[in-house]
Amino acid sequence: MPGKVYDHIIIGAGIIGLAMARSLRQARPAATILVLEKEQDVGEHSSGRNSGVLHAGFYYTADSLKARFTVDGSRAMKEYCRVKNIPVNACGKLVVAMDARELEVLYELERRGKRNGSNVRLIGVDEARAFEPGVFTYQKALYSPETASLEPLAVLMALKQDLKMQGVEILLGAQFKGRCGQVVKTTKGEYEGKKIINCAGLYADRVAHQYGFGKQYTMIPFKGLYLKYKKNKSDVKMNVYPVPHLRNPFLGVHFTKTVDGTIKIGPTAIPAFWRENYSWTNRFNAGELGEILCEEARLFLTNAFGFRDLAFEEIHKYDRNYFIGLAVKMMPTIDPQGFGEFTRPGIRAQLLDRTDLSLVQDFVIEADKSSVHVLNAVSPAFTCAFPFADFVCQKYIL
Questions:
Q1: Average pLDDT value for residue range 202-217
Q2: With contact defined as beta carbons under 8 Å apart, do 58 and 113 qualify?
Q3: In whole angstroms, what is the distance from residue 270 CA to residue 292 CA?
Q4: Taking the CB of residue 334, how many other CB atoms lie within 10 A of it?
Q5: pTM of whole model > 0.85?
Q6: What is the DSSP secondary-structure string of 222-251?
């Protein structure tokens, strides 16, 4: 049995786990805090592989945690980057419509944004083209000047350095293997904590189940691919997005302007077959394959939340010309031959509610006096991280 008893043990060193450690350290300067991470560095999965977009908070319904924390989170992350001299590209964003039906969605997004305190407004075609000369939109576009981009790994590395300087222990290569009471069993030994905080991302549901939480949920992973535009960095000046399908949490193929000005399109939301299915040979897991195929087969047969339609559409995006064509609709002036290679893939840790076969849209937190479980920490979790972590700490930990 371990000798030292930590005040807090955090499982997972992605953006949420590191932000949680930051919030705890700010609230309790003398507390003993241990962060356990199964990889050899922080942010190896979703946090370090995301698009780097800081969202503006207009996609989410007013009663959601995402709506509550995105606007403040964006401001807090920009301020952190300013203090740490981490570059931010404040390029803004346009959401465009292809027809009258999609125009109605723009109006709904504007309503949501204004309720959530987001700085957004509808603009006409001429003004949209003043911002982005090559853009196509039907009558109106939604303009978000606060949307920006950064390099996620730069933030993660700065947080890691801060936490170490503040006495937070970060143990790498320590994979969660189970628990016995308040003792966490890992591949690098056993560690006892008064409060266990589960921020395990793709495996958060598995960890939660060990503590008796999240039984109705399972993870359905979706693979996100981006295609880089190699011709130049000037053909697109800002982020350009289509209107989303409001019944699911994916935002569709869009143009992202990265922090260094690079242009890329994506992502896909292709159903993955195991949790770390970045490629067909990467970390193959037969057990996960069987479990996830069973869940996906059930979703496919019932077409729950339109999964069958989504699967066909996403698999179609493996056709490079089709994938590029979706982007060209929004930016007809872009050169379809100007695209290069796909960037490093990411996996979305999307939670499925088994009780009604629905994709969970919001963050989920389940807790008791000895453990806290952060589930479904998907986009815009990076944007929300600082105020969301403060909220979890104040309500469930301290």
A1: 98
A2: yes
A3: 13
A4: 21
A5: yes
A6: EEE--EEE-S-SSS--SEEEEPP-TTSS--
